[in-house]
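To whoever is covering the structure queue this week,

Two jobs came back overnight. Logging them here so there's a record in the thread.

Job A:
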Amino acid sequence: MSLAWGGVRAYLGDNSKSEGVTMAPMRPHGAGAFPKAVVTPAPNAPDPAQLYAALDLGTNSCRMLIAQPKGSQFHVIDSFSKSVQLGQGLESSGKLSRASMNRTIQAMRICRQKLERHGVKRMRLVATEACRRARNGANFIAQVRRETGLQLEIIKPEEEARLAVISCAPLVSTKTEQLLVVDIGGGSTELVWIDISHVPARERPRAIMRLHAGFVADPGPFAAAKVVDWISVPLGVATLRDQFADVDDDAARFALMSWFFEENLSDFAPSAAEQARDGFQIIGTSGTVTTVAASHLGLKRYDRTKVDGLRMTSDQIDAVIRGYLKLGPDGRRDDPRIGRDRQALIMSGAAILQALMRLWPTDRLSVADRGLREGLLYAQMSADGVLEDAPY
C-alpha cells in the first residue's frame, strides 16, 4: 500500500502493523443535497397542523427534531438525541445484534411519545448506513413498526449526501467558488464537491439550497450549482474504529485510520487534480467536527451558537487532535467536552478530519452543527410550500 500521507507518518512507530480490509467506496453517477436553519424555540404552543418531524437513525445515534416553519427557516419545538450504538458488532457479524436493536427500539418509543404529545402528522423517519449494510436491516425496520408503530425508511447514500449539503447552505460564503461538504457519520462518510464559480456571488448559498430537488435537477432560469462528484465511503467513526480495534497503541491506531481513510478516497474525482486555493471552502458536519470545535473554544458546556459557523484553521484542528492523543483513552473519557459516550469514537472521527484537511488546498474548515434532520425538515417544508423565499 502507498504511504503517501504526509505528516501522519510521524505518529507511527516502527512496530505498528495493520491488516486492512479493502472496502471500495460507492461512487454513483449522479449527486444530491438538502439544508436547514434553526432559530430559537417557539414561545407559544404551536398548532399541530404546522408541525414537522425528522428522525435520523444512524450507526451510532438516534436523533429527532420537531419544528414549525418560520419565514425561510424554522423553530425547533422539541428534540431527542441518544447514542444507541445500533451498528455495534456489525463489522464482524454483518448483522444488527439483538442488544443493539433493543436499545434502539427503546429510543424509538421515546420518539413516538414525543410525536404523539405534540400531535405531529407530517414526518419523515430515516435510517442510514447500519440498516443499509446489515443482512437483517429490513427485518429490523419491520420490528420497529410492530413494536412502536413508527415506519422507518432506509435511504440511499445519494439522498443522505443531498440532505447534508442543503443543511449547510446558509454557511456557504459568497466568495466560495469550489465547495466541499463533508458529513462524517457513524457508518459512512459522504463527500460532495460542488462548483459554484458560474453562480453570481450573492446567489451562491441559494444555489446550494436548490439542490434539494436532486444533484442533477434542472434549475430552471436560475444559475446552477454543479455537482462535480460525490462519494459515500463506507467508513464512519464507528466502522473505521472497528477496522483497527486490534491495534493497541493509541497514536499508531490514529495514524493508520487516517491513512486508510485517505486510501479510500483515491477514486474521488476532485482529489486527482490540483485545486486552486482561492475560493475553496470545506464545510464539515458531524459530532466529530462540533466536538473538535468545542474543544478548541474551551467550552465547559456545549453552545451551538458559538460552534455553528465557526471557522477553524488546520493548525487549530491539529492542536486539538494532538491534545486528544496526549490525553489518551482515559483522559479523553474524563474530558467533559468529549464525554464517555463519544470518547471511543472521537479519534476515528479526528483521523477522518485530519485526512481531509491534508488532501485539499485550504487551511480552514467551516463547522456546521446541522445535518440530516435539518435537511429532512427543509425538504418536507419546501415540498409543502410553507417556507418563504427570503434571502440569506
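Job B:
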Amino acid sequence: MSSWPVLVFDIETIPDVAGLRALRQMDSSVNDAGVYAAEMAERQSRGKSDFMPLHLQRVLVISCIFRNAEGLRVHSIVDREAEGASQEGRVIQSFFNLVERHTPQLVSWNGGGFDLPVLHHRGLRHGVVASKYWDLGEDNREFRWNNYIGRYHLRHLDLMDLLAMYQPRANAPLDAMAKLCGFPGKLGMDGSLVYPAYLEGRRDEIRRYCETDVMNTYLLYCRFQKMRGGFTEGEYEREVAFVRETLEAIDEPHWREYLAAWPGWPTVAPAADASAPAYIEASSIRT
C-alpha cells in the first residue's frame, strides 16, 4: 500500500478530577469522589450531560496499530500512574514521538471530533512537543497542502468524518459499521463504562477494549482502501488474512474473543506477484 506507514489510533479517557479540583478550587478535604459528584450535580442542574468537556478528559490509554512494509503491530501507550501520580504527559508525548519519527498516515474514527482535540488540550497542559504534527508548511512545503491539522487533508484521515461527507448528521458509529462490514465490533465494553472500570482497578480491561476498537478502525480503513482503489480485491483479502494471522499469534484473551466473534474469513495465502504487498512478521516500533 503506497501510503505506508499507517498509524491507526484510538484513545480512552477518564474525567480529570485533579483539573476539576483546581478549577472548582476545592482543597484536599474533599476526596476525588466528592469533587466528581459536585461537578455532576452542577452539570445536571444546568441540563448538561455527564460527558466532560474535552479539555477535562484525562488520557488513560492510546492504542495504535502501526502498519508498514515490515509488518503490523498492536501497541498501547498506557498511563501507569507511577506512585499515584498521573503519567498522562508521557503517554501523549510518546504518541507524538511516533508521528515525529515515522511521519505516518494517521487514521482514526472521529479523531478530528474527539481524540485529537483531547490530545491537543491535554498536550498543551503537559508541555508536549509535536513539531512535525503541527507543521502547516513552515518547515516542510509539502505540509502546506497536506498536513495533519487540515480537516480536508488526508495526512490525518478521520474515516468517520470523510464517509459522512463532513456532515455530522450523517456520522455512523464505529461498532455498527464494523459489524455491518462483517467485523467483530465492540466486545464487552463501551465508552460509558470506562470510568467505572477505572475506579474498580480494571485498567488492563480498558486497554484491551481500546485495542479492539482500534483494530475495528484499521479493518474499516482496509475496506475503505478497497472501495477507493487503494487495494485490489486480492490485496484486501490478503491484508485481512494477515491481520487474522497476526492476532492468532498474540496470546491474550481479548484477541481470542475477537477472533471467535469474527467468523467467515478463510486464510488467504499471499500471492507471489510483484503487485501484492510483502508481509513479514510484525516488528516493534520505537517511540
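Note for Job B: The chain has two domains: 6-16+52-260, 17-51.

Please reply-all if you pick these up so we don't duplicate work.
Q.
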